[in-house]
Amino acid sequence: MQILRYETYKQNVAKTEKATQLMQQNLDEQVLEIIRAVQERGDEAALTYTQKFDKADITSLSVSEEEWDRAFDKVKQEQPALFKALTEAAENIRQYQQRTKEEGFQFSPQPGIRLGQKITPLERVGVYVPGGKASYPSTVLMDVIPAVVAGVEQVVITTPPRSDGTIDSVVLTAAKIAGADHVYKIGGAQAVAALAYGTESVPKADKIVGPGSAFVARAKKWVFGDVAIDIIAGPSEICAFADNTVPPSYVAADLLSQAEHAEDATSICVTTDAAYAEEVQKEVERQIPLLERAVIIRESIQTNGKIIICDEEAQAIELINTIAPEHLQLMGERAEEQVEKIKHAGAIFIGPYSSEPLGDYFAGPNHTLPTNGTARFSSPLGVYDFMKKSSTIHYSKERLLDYADTIITIAEAEGLTGHANAIRIRKENNDASS
């Protein structure tokens, strides 16, 4: 794991951004080909790509009720501790999300005028749940439950099947606990296309949410506009700001918890103590061989793992806000004071015992978070992502006539005489009748 001074890290960022842009451009041709094929050929194209990419020779994209029920009963009976853990986590997520649910409002600034906002849940949402390198029941809970709390009429899941054509039983169990309505055996860009445009089996969604591979992220970018999306998620990220009051083993373990997601995950430690940086580096090296996904972790740490030494706390905070990390752990003795200085982060974990996996699995706040610096303008997935707002406007005849000339003046200043006429005709009609 590299140790870099602040200035050196800043110089390297621009080079990395250019490389990422080139990689995305190379992916786009393949992604657009898949999207067009699914648009044109529906299920047939989706099944072909499932066989090609997932090595699953299936004849139906849909998970049957029987298959779903068998998976649920199996986990409940054979893995009771896991079933209990998923149920408890689901309840924590529900409680948190219910507190974020907005209500509409109305107010009357003066007699005869009533203004407001009407909040309506989306009708159908598609949740993408990654597969491949790991199974992610936690993503099912995190992405389905806010939609259910919002009141979405239909929540469907797409997830890549295993090579034998099945979906992991724990994922299906989480889907039932969370309240999903249907699950489809399809992943990658083809799943995004199916949700965006619909196929014979997969219904067209109003919005697509959930993390995925680079193919999924680029596909979401290209279908955006035809369908809503949450965010264009990139690889997992963690940034830990620590000092010598925190055991280096804690910091190293948290960094590695993100590195095990994939080879392109990013793990960064920020500190103002050069000697402490070396201790964290040694601890990272000590722990890697102890973990099952050591090969993936090693590549991630070698490519994207960094310990950055800053001159002072202010510089460290500035750097963190520039990175705008997906997960930020403020672990040092001044963690509580530092929270107010953080402008950009997906989720903030405060103190040495608020380890990032707490947020991934159990605490309640969502783990679908903005990545690649998009925390500058994006938020964690939540109930608000599954609701839309309509403004409501009611003027009585008297109030409209009071302000008719004012509205006409603005409309005519813009050269929109039709707008002006729509008001004038009401004014003149009432002038004539009085």
From TrEMBL:
Pathway: Amino-acid biosynthesis; L-histidine biosynthesis; L-histidine from 5-phospho-alpha-D-ribose 1-diphosphate: step 9/9. Pfam families: Histidinol_dh. It catalyses: L-histidinol + 2 NAD(+) + H2O = L-histidine + 2 NADH + 3 H(+). The active site is at E326, H327. Its EC number is 1.1.1.23. Binds 1 zinc ion per subunit. Belongs to the histidinol dehydrogenase family. Catalyzes the sequential NAD-dependent oxidations of L-histidinol to L-histidinaldehyde and then to L-histidine. This is Histidinol dehydrogenase. It comes from Oceanobacillus jeddahense. The gene is hisD.
